[in-house]
Every structure is written in structure tokens, then in C-alpha cells.
Write a structure and sequence with these properties.
Keywords: Membrane, Transmembrane, Transmembrane helix. This is Accessory secretory protein Asp2. It comes from Streptococcus mitis. 95% of the residues lie in helices and 0% in strands. With 39 residues, it is an all-alpha fold. The longest helix is centred in the middle third of the chain and has 37 residues, at 2-38. It is rod-shaped, with a radius of gyration of 17 Å. The mean pLDDT is 83.
């Protein structure tokens, strides 16, 4: 039972980590587009 809960916790952490990376990439893309557009 404990193995299941730990694997779920790790999976949740992985999802949050991936989501933060995805947000970061989107932010960089947006900044790059804005910079490109303003020039």
C-alpha cells in the first residue's frame, strides 16, 4: 500500500515539474515574439 502512495506522490511531483517547465517555455516564446514584434 505504501509503494502505491509513494509512486502516486512522485507522479504528481513529476506532473507539477513538467507543468512548470512548459509554462517557462511558453513564457520564453511569448517574450521572444514580443521582442521580435517591437523591433
Amino acid at each position: 500500500m505504501q509503494d502505491l502512495s509513494t509512486s502516486l506522490l512522485v507522479g504528481d511531483m513529476g506532473i507539477n515539474y513538467f507543468r512548470q517547465i512548459f509554462k517557462f517555455i511558453l513564457l520564453l516564446k511569448a517574450l521572444y515574439l514580443i521582442k521580435d514584434w517591437s523591433m
